[in-house]
């Protein structure tokens, strides 16, 4: 079953008097449980497409259907609630709160829910254990390595049990060993926990960890298949 169905998707920005078209008539299906890598040269539209799938931006035209919901028709307020309920985000630079412990960082998305403080704490502990940081809950970001900080960010992304994980260059700021560990973790979340993952990356080795690779070029889908990533 397709979790994400995109039809004739377009996106344009107004820069002064000039209208810049970033995406041109994208058609894409992402099955439930898939792990997709988006690749393409700088300016190809991959991050724009990722932001549209994650509900961080709205399209200029076309349809985005996720789990039977037309998110392209949602207001800003509806999109915000939908993201909170259905999507987890992982970014290149972790975006952790430096003054909070790992556990408190992971709890942040749960502050928008009706869960009790005790339940929030327990869910954060479970998420940290899932990413291999059971014993690091009280550490602040500056007491953790880059790879550990990204694990905290992933725990924060999954603590609300979202259907969809959106990852924008999740290994872009990591050394190769840490990157491999993060990619193995994402594979495990996909394979063992059924998370559907869409990941933007410029690294062919990172893309190899996905089930398939989709290539964008100048705002259109160029081709599909990991072989083209090299």
From TrEMBL:
PROSITE patterns: ABC_TRANSPORTER_1, ABC_TRANSPORTER_2. The keyword Transport applies. Keywords: ATP-binding, Nucleotide-binding, Transport. GO terms for molecular function: ATP binding. InterPro entries: AAA+_ATPase (IPR003593), ABC_transporter-like_ATP-bd (IPR003439), ABC_transporter-like_CS (IPR017871), ABC_transpr_LolD-like (IPR015854), MacB-like_ATP-bd (IPR017911), P-loop_NTPase (IPR027417). SUPFAM superfamilies: P-loop containing nucleoside triphosphate hydrolases (SSF52540). The keyword ATP-binding applies. This is ABC transporter ATP-binding protein. It comes from the Bacteria. Pfam families: ABC_tran (PF00005). PANTHER family: ABC TRANSPORTER ATP-BINDING PROTEIN, IMPORT ATP-BINDING PROTEIN. Residues 4-229 form the ABC transporter domain.
